[in-house]
């Protein structure tokens, strides 16, 4: 076994020996130094590589910064083209100051919102419509008229203010359901100072926008509501506004155009007869009587409201034998079928009832207690007679 060579501990002081081909051999110390030097990175090379990597990182950072700067600049340009971008579409708080706003009859939530936005009550139409859609029943209860509002209100505060009657200024003309056109003209004249004669003359005006189905007759087409007309609105303009509301109600009730006049006639009878009764049931009674010419009423409606109309008589819910024998096509005690046209100007509930009657076989109804409006419906004559006797006991008017 060969022992360890003492030369591995050599300090490098020996001379270099020649190798086999005569060349010099490095000493162990030199070989050790070579190995150590090969394991190190030359100082210059190391510094050069670091500079290259540093430069690359700096270039990437500079490029990223340029991209971010360009993006921010582009975003700023976009925001300048879209005013309000990123801002709330609603004002905060209850607002300040005072401004009067007119809510037109039949105005939708979007129309009301636009009106409020134009007066700077709310910031955007959409903020108001969002609140109205969240509470549809309350939104539907907003009445037409002039309201005292504040400017720069939150949509919720504006909505609540419209629901409070205390904020409504009574400037309009209110026309209740079931008025005759002559009564409407009188009330309009009182509220607008337009003479009654001008409304009567307007019936013949070529500018009057009556649908062809009306055949030139205004009765039934003047929709009852509260209206606020401009000070210079003519009689024709006022009547056209009311007529357009009636058309809207017929369309909303889903009534075909060729049924418009008939539906208004039925609706006017329902309006004149129902009182507090279920209007859809009253409409069904009308239709059932018309559909049964051989039934107990022999196809006659036998409605006191039609007799009141032909006599232009108010103040009673009944008629006398003499009145029921009046010779007129509007006398539904002596004529089968519907009267020639509407007998008043019905409201939305009556129009909807006439367009969509309840299902049932009722042929009779009577308000057994006028003080409460309690009304009873019957399918047979015998049942109806019992109800009539109850009416007599409650009113003492059958003696």
From TrEMBL:
Residues 30-39 have a biased composition (Basic residues). Residues 327-337 have a biased composition (Polar residues). It holds the Pfam family YceG. Its EC number is 4.2.2.29. It is a single-pass membrane protein. The chain crosses the membrane at residues 57-75. Its main location: membrane. InterPro entries: MLTG-like. Residues 11-29 have a biased composition (Basic and acidic residues). Residues 1-51, 316-340 are annotated as: Disordered. The record marks 273 as: Important for catalytic activity. Belongs to the transglycosylase MltG family. PANTHER family: ENDOLYTIC MUREIN TRANSGLYCOSYLASE. Functions as a peptidoglycan terminase that cleaves nascent peptidoglycan strands endolytically to terminate their elongation. This is Endolytic murein transglycosylase.
